[in-house]
Amino acid sequence: MNGHLEALGREALRVQGVRKSFGKRGAGKEVLGGLSLTVADGEFVSIVGPSGSGKTTLFKVIGGLERPSEGDVRIGGKLTTGERGHISYMPQQSALLPWLTVAGNIELSLAISGVDRRAAKEKTNEWLERIGLQEYADAYPRVLSGGMLQRVSFLRALLAPQRLMLLDEPFGALDALTRLQMQQWLMSIWEQNRRSVLLVTHSIEEALLLSDRILVLSSSPAVVREEFTVPFGRPRSEALWTDPRFNELKQRIYGLLKADMEEGE
Amino acid sequence: MASKKGFLAKAWPPIAVLAGLLACWQAAVTLGGVADWLLPSPLAIVQEAARVWPRLMEHTEATVRLTLAGFAGGSAAGFVLAALLHLIPGLRTGAYPLLVLSQNVPVIAIAPILTMLLGYGFLPKVLLLMVVCFFPVTVATLGGLSSPDPQLRHYFQMIGIGKWQMFWRVELPHAIVHLFSGLKISASYSVLSAIVAEWLGTNKGLGAFMLLSFKGFMPDRGYAAVFVIVALSLALFGLVVLAERCFIRWQPEKEAGKE
Questions:
Q1: If we measure between CA atoms, which residue out of B127, B113, B130, B170 comes closest to residue B146?
Q2: Which chain A residues are closer than 8 Å to B165 by Cβ?
Q3: pLDDT at B255
Q4: How many angstroms separate the Cα of B42 from the Cα of each of A6, A55, B13, B36, B227?
């Protein structure tokens, strides 16, 4: 484990023994049960888990929106428990402001993330061109398709200066075909521009296709049940699906999730 | 242009109905032999309006001045109030019932109170209009400030937005659409309240002119004033709609059916 970390350099995120309960004075339902995880610098880590396994709460804790009842969060080696502004974020719904143009939306988020206005503008223009969306720079979000919106949303997260990106079910609302395209697209962009990523997804295939490591969560309270290192090199493509190791891993992860759901019933 | 054609298509039915009504009115008075001191015909009203035009315009000017001052002041106060209620925790729950209460006191009762306190000048009348106009703006704006999509709010919290930036960048722009709904209501109220204010205590303005005309058995003059008041109301409402169109470019034209 440590060897793996050193090989990848500094660690982007360390979540240590985080517990979180809701209800009266934290005596209610425990959602996170002493959860620990790390993301190394430049590493792509996915979290899969049954619905309601506290993934949203985990993201809120990492983002500083919720304080854990116990444990702490370190981002880039710095203790950031309960502090906001240390991550960039891509939600399931694109969350673009309808009254700003595509470029305006990206620039605003960069400004909030601490980039100065002019640099934000330049970067936005440069990248919109690079990903072939420059013709939409001055368009309002309502004219864009779901896939396009998510591209903009991803770009907005990617350009922020924060080292760690949290992707929360980013393609969950897209149709299957668009979803596949988007995974490919995201992977190609990310491979050229590596950032530390923590992705929450319901799709095991998506996790296998995109990540270096997969963490399988158990539900209520959530802890990391098992961890898989994805053995495929990069760049990757759909050809992966015919790899016997792909299916074997998929079956194992699926088995874990299924067992968890049956226990819960 | 497609939109112009759409406008004509939508505008002709109400215009036709209105023209029909006026024609019936005219016919009823001339053919039915209604006494003109009881109900003047539309033509008689127009003729009378033309005859007293300079005086009518003088009073219109006074009303317009009062209306605009009250509408602008009331809306501004309403907007600031909404922002304060939104930004200061606890104030909203504390003060909201009081705001509702302010609307439950009849205008007709507030006017003499203000007159007693402040006399017959311009100020008490403007205040009366402000009392009437601020409320729709406050309620609509407050609704807008607290209703942005929770997903948007969540996203911006996750990337570490501060309270002020949330207000300026997310909540306020979102509230603009709502603000305009409030302004449209206030615009209509403001003209009517100006008339009431003038009716109750002044010798200037269409309200006073109307009162004198009806009391002096000159209903055609009174009706002329009514026509001007209706026109003023429509014009102010139209101005707000126009401002809304200029201001909110990003929205699809879904408001079109509502007007």
A1: B170
A2: 112
A3: 44
A4: 92, 72, 20, 11, 10
Which residue in B has a C-alpha nearest to residue A60's C-alpha? B158
* Domains defined for chain B, CATH in brackets: 43-250 (1.10.3720.10)
User: Among A84, A86, A95, whose Cβ lies nearest the Cβ of B152?
Assistant: A95
Measured in angstroms, the CA of B2 and the nearest CA of chain A are apart by 20
| Chain A residue closest in CA terms to B175 | A99
Q: Write the residue in A84, A86, A97 that is nearest to B157 by C-beta.
A: A84
The residues in A 110-129 lying below 8 A from B, measured between CB atoms, are: 112-113
Q: Does the beta carbon of B175 lie under 8 angstroms from any beta carbon of chain A?
A: no
Domain boundaries along the sequence of chain A: 2-86+164-264, 94-161
Assess whether pLDDT exceeds 70 at residue B29. yes
**CATH of region A2-86+164-264, choose from 3.90.1150.10, 3.30.950.10, 3.40.50.300, 2.60.120.10:** 3.40.50.300
B184 pLDDT exceeds 50? yes
Give the pLDDT of residue A104.
Answer: 96
ipTM value for the complex: 0.91
User: Of the candidates A97, A3, A137, A251, which has an alpha carbon nearest to the alpha carbon of residue B173?
Assistant: A97
CB distance B149 to B178 below 8 Å: no
pLDDT of A63 reads 94
Contact status of A86 with chain B (Cβ, < 8 Å): yes
In the prediction, which pLDDT does A1 show?
Answer: 42
Q: Cα B243–B247–B253 angle (5° rounding)?
A: 90
Instruction: Kindly state the DSSP code that residue A25 receives in the 8-state scheme.
Output: G
- Give chain B positions within 8 Å (CB) of A64: 160
Q: Do the Cβ atoms of B169 and A166 come within 8 Å?
A: no
CB nearest B152 (choices: A59, A87, A97): A97
pLDDT at B70 over 70: yes
Helix (H, G, I), strand (E, B) or coil at A163: coil
**Higher-confidence residue: B259 or A9?**
A9
Question: Average pLDDT per run of 10 along chain A, which is 265 residues long?
Answer: 49 93 75 92 92 86 93 92 94 92 96 93 94 92 92 94 93 90 91 92 92 90 90 84 91 90 72
